[in-house]
Amino acid sequence: ASFGTDHGTAAPHLLLGGKVRGGFFGTQPPLSQIVDDDLIHTADFRSYYSTIAEHWWHVPGIPGFRPLNGILGS
Fold first, then answer.
1. What's the CA gap between 71 and 11, in Å, rounded?
2. Total number of domains constituting the chain
C-alpha cells in the first residue's frame, strides 16, 4: 500500500496544443474491477508518449507501445 502517496494507476492525461483533437478518448475504467486497491488503466501512458514521439516529434516511439489513433490531427 502507498498510504496515499501514489497518484493512481488510472489517472487522466491532458494533451494540449494545436495538433490535438479536442474531446475525450479511451474508455472509463470499470469501477467494479479493482486490482491491488487501484482502478485498472484502459490506455497505458507510454502509448500517449509514443503517439507524441512518432506523430509530433517524428522520432521512434517506445518499443512495444503503439501510438493511439485519433488524438492528434494532421
1. 17
2. 1
Separation of alpha carbons 52 and 58, rounded Å: 8
* Strand boundaries in 1-74, DSSP class E: 34-35, 38-39
Q: What pTM, to 2 d.p., does this model score?
A: 0.66
Range of the domain at 28: 1-74
Environment class of residue 64 by beta-carbon count within 10 Å: exposed (0-12), middle (13-18) or buried (19+)? exposed
Which tens digits make up the pLDDT trace of 10-66? 777 888 888 888 888 878 888 888 888 788 888 888 888 898 898 888 999 889 888
C-alpha cell at 31: 469501477
